């Protein structure tokens, strides 16, 4: 049903991983030896991404301190953003190839995929394997996708935009209240709409995730890879719009850099705090509570059994099941978006991301070792479709930062009469960055 943890090997892994808080590289090879390549690659990418954020944090801190009140002096930092968001993903490809080459999975042959356990249909003969298995017409799946799933996703996107406009109404109300009274408590009130909106975003993301999983399962995909690709596409599209639509609206419609900085800071910090509580603190507390109950139950047994093994089986049976790296990569994907898209306006974004990731490494390690069942190991040659997702975000980041540079007063001052020259230069920079 599930593999038990090897307590001796797990203790050695914990001692070299997270029990002693020191600034050192993670034992990725040991993680791979215990949990497999897929999970080891996630922790390798988390470590690499955290290290890659440090130059952004180092440059952003003085930039934030000395240009705090001048919201329009972001051209230099945006230019650095352009290069950073492109280069780090190319360097990661090389590092990932080095790891998987060392593990022997770099040129891993793709095995013939068996049908998903949830796949259903009329029993028939597979023309490739000659075996009897469920068959389901492709046109029926396409009808479900385009007539049900696609309209539902569009409806959710519309609802997300509607909630965003309510948030802007709340911002206008808080601003007018502060301007009319000018007191200290109303200045604090200015942050309340952003905090409420950030919490609503997290709730909507989680509710949509359940709906997306149900719809993707209902579409009845034959292979696990097809199921994962459709699920990731649904979730990424909604999460991107839900998390970043308000920032794009503020930046390019309202053109209010002060509000953009405030919204980005609130959304980033609030989402990181909520994720730490929901993913690590709460599960760990529940697990500790259950551990005490199991101890009492074992002590009450009078039977002559191996109490230690019985206790381990009962305890791990009630542990949560690790559902894969989907949520972990999604969290990093959104964090990469917050940092790469608009951190030129709020340079402390990278510093907060670094601090979050230092705790994320330890909390995820604790979660894998002490909160969740030991998962079956899976070989991997790379991080899969998430590489494409991060590269797509990098392209959007290049376009966004080029547009912000083109909007800046410093660049506009160079072209006081002709806006066409400015537009052509911005487009040329975008094209050259994307080709690189």
TrEMBL record:
UniProt entry tagged with the keyword Transferase: no
InterPro entries, alphabetized: Anoctamin, Anoctamin_TM
Membrane topology category: Multi-pass membrane protein
Keywords in alphabetical order: Membrane, Transmembrane, Transmembrane helix
Positions of the Anoctamin transmembrane domain: 31-427
Keyword Repeat: no
GO cellular component: plasma membrane
GO molecular function, one term: chloride channel activity
Pfam family, one: Anoctamin
Predominant location: membrane
Transmembrane regions: 39-68, 74-92, 145-168, 188-208, 231-252
Name recorded for this polypeptide: Anoctamin
